Amino acid sequence: MTTTTTRSDPAAAAPAAVPSEVLDLLARITGDEKHDPASHSTLDVLWVLHRYVLDVAPDRTDDPDRDRFLLSKGHGPASYYAVLAALGFIAPDQLDRVGSWESRLGHHPDRTLVPGVEIGSGSLGHGLALAVGTALGLRAQGRTRARVVVLVGDGELDEGSNAEAIALAGRLGLGRLTCVVVDNDSAALGWPGGLAGRFTVEGWDVDTVDAHDQAALRTTLDVTHPDRPRAVVARTAPRGGRR
């Protein structure tokens, strides 16, 4: 059975593009550590999730029934910071000092310093396992409304912990868990049968979309299943942009 939910803004039409205001905020972040390709490859996904899909808000960052978003691909946080600024989680002028000594915005987001951030990222490859643990914790508490969405890169799925997390989530039927894989073909060895097949064989429901088609992203990210985790493979070019 498939259920379609629209959490944050049910009246909003499918978006056509990231607003220019968000792009202006992103342009305020400079420096070699900005990781432009990584940041731009995730911008559309981050905007659609936070503006249209996730049940999150600046005044509810401690609400136990909020949705959880985990950025595993944390080495390119510029787009994430720009989206958080656009939606009121952080002040826009903080973007001018990212990575500086006095800034709360580091080159990896820190959940103890940045409102709305759920994990402190670092070494790649751990976000999906953390998301599985978060989904299990919410289930144990009887909180069945909140979704857990994790954004990963295809390259970090080479880490062995992800193999365990994919298998466990499928076996336990974590229906409130969604894994968005921004896929730019950077995995070292690739995946026999394609990346989507890696999830499908473990019992996940999987869809593949263009990482920059916001209407398609909105449609597929709204979908959840009561008893199956969902993976969305968002395809992008190796240095960002449409394939």
Structure description:
It is a single chain. With 243 residues, the chain is an alpha/beta fold. The chain has a single domain, classed as 3-Layer(aba) Sandwich (Rossmann fold). It contains seven helices and seven strands. Strands 2-3-4-7-5 form a five-stranded parallel β-sheet, with helices on both faces. Helix 5 links the parallel strand 3 and strand 4. Helix 2 runs parallel beside helix 3. The chain starts with a strand and ends in an 8-residue tail after the last strand. One of its GO terms (molecular function) is magnesium ion binding. This is Transketolase.
List the helices and strands and how they pair.
Elements (H helix, E strand, L loop, with lengths): L2 E2 L15 H8 L8 H18 L14 E4 L6 H9 L40 H14 L7 E6 L6 H13 L4 E7 L11 H6 L4 E6 L3 H8 L1 E2 L5 E6 L8
Parallel strand pairs: 2-3, 3-4, 4-7, 5-7
Antiparallel strand pairs: 1-6
Protein name: Transketolase
Family: Belongs to the transketolase family.
GO molecular function: magnesium ion binding
